[in-house]
């Protein structure tokens, strides 16, 4: 990675979530910050204000006025129109390029910076935003917001997607421009030389028995991600099937899932951990697990599946889901139907075949787990090319 040829200019990263809110896009933005800084690029993050945040050393961070989103705790929606200071900061900060990871309030601020300063705007399409809007807004407002969303992506210099299958969703929304696939990475396997030993040590440290099948879900606890299917599949595994199920994360459906676990008599085998901020602790859960469960049609390119893959833990995903685009059944993961019965049958079948599970875990690590170091080398090269083309077009 070359040092930045121009000092005192910033690479702007705009997103509607940032710590203490944690999700896959937040982790992606955090890693963009980390690797751009390592490459000698000055970074500025623009994101809505959130409580219980103490700042990040060495990072220029602009937070603007926000309010909590009904039924989407801990997410907040930013209202830059009610924050006069953010507009002045955006105008006065010398950005070299801005990269929006959300099309909403932060994305509109990124577009404003690009217009005012005559710089390129990169926009990554991460999520199935229409689903989010339909949960929170009445139909007329959803149509209005989708129109604005489409106009935002059409205004970008380049539109990036994290994997090829995501293009279909973007086309469904009406976008007809060019898209570029730029994958997400992971940072879990960087310093592990013996993955077998690390997985064994992780099981011991977390108190998982050799005779238990360790099952894991990491992500927002929302119904769109299929977590109810996971819980309802567990009693169908049978009385003789020893397992431990760990849920990591929070979301609006958390209390309902805890009640369902109690109603099904699963309290002694299912644990809800909330958000785990310590990356090493989270890595141990991925490594200790036999299977990562992710029955979601909602997600486009879930980072959590790649993180599990880095720890040689294969995932069970849904046939036909965008998340499963890169998964070949039995080779680097497993595919099944979206019913508790089908999900339970797949868990039982894979858990009973240690060699199949190990081979799929190795396949997942080989095909799904790119390092952030490699990804960000590509990102910085693309940034430089976009900036050069933009500057040449102005002369």
Can you characterise this structure?
This protein has 14 helices and 15 strands. Residues 1-7 have low confidence and may be disordered. Helix 4 runs antiparallel to helix 5. The protein is α/β, with parallel strands linked by helices and 395 residues long.
How do the strands of the widest beta sheet line up side by side?
3-2-1-6-7-8-9
- What is the makeup of the main sheet? 7 strands, parallel
Contiguous runs where pLDDT drops below 50 for at least 5 residues:
1-7
Structural class of the secondary structure composition?
A: alpha/beta
Please supply descriptive tags for the structure shown above.
395 residues; alpha/beta; 7-stranded parallel β-sheet; 6-stranded parallel β-sheet; 14 helices; 15 strands
């Amino acid at each position: 990675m070359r040092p930045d040829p121009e000092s005192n200019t910033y690479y702007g990263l705009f997103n509607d979530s940032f710590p203490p809110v944690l999700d896959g896009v937040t982790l992606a933005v955090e890693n963009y910050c980390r690797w751009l800084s390592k490459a000698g690029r000055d970074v500025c993050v623009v994101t809505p204000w959130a409580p219980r945040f103490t700042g990040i050393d060495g990072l220029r961070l602009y937070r603007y006025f926000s309010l909590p989103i009904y039924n989407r705790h801990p997410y907040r929606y930013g209202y830059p129109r009610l924050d006069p200071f953010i507009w002045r900061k955006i105008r006065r900060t010398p950005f070299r390029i801005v990269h929006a990871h959300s099309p909403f309030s932060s994305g509109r601020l990124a577009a404003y910076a690009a217009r005012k300063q005559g710089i390129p705007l990169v926009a990554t399409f991460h999520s199935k935003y229409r689903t989010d809007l339909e949960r929170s807004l009445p139909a007329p407002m959803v149509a209005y917001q989708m129109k604005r969303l489409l106009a935002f992506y059409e205004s970008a210099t380049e539109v990036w997607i994290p994997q090829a299958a995501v293009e279909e969703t973007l086309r469904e929304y009406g976008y007809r421009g060019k898209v570029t696939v730029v994958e997400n990475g992971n940072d879990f396997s960087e310093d592990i030389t013996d993955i077998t030993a690390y997985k064994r040590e992780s099981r011991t440290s977390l108190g998982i028995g050799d005779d238990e099948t360790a099952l894991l879900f990491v992500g927002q606890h929302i119904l769109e991600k299929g977590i109810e299917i996971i819980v309802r599949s567990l009693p169908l595994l049978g009385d003789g099937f020893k397992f431990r199920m760990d849920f990591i994360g929070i979301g609006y459906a958390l209390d309902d899932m805890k009640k369902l676990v109690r109603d099904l008599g699963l309290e002694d085998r299912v644990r809800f951990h909330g958000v785990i901020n310590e990356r090493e602790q989270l890595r141990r859960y991925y490594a200790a697990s036999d299977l990562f469960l992710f029955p979601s049609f909602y997600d486009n390119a879930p980072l959590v599946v790649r993180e599990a893959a880095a720890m040689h833990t294969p995932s069970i995903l849904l046939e036909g889901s965008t998340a499963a685009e890169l998964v070949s059944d039995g080779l680097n993961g497993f595919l099944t139907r979206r019913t508790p019965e089908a999900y339970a049958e797949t868990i039982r079948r894979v858990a009973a075949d240690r060699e199949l599970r190990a081979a799929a875990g190795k396949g997942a690590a080989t095909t799904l787990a790119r390092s952030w170091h490699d990804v960000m080398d590509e990102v910085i090269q693309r940034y430089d090319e976009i900036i050069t083309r933009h500057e040449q077009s102005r002369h």
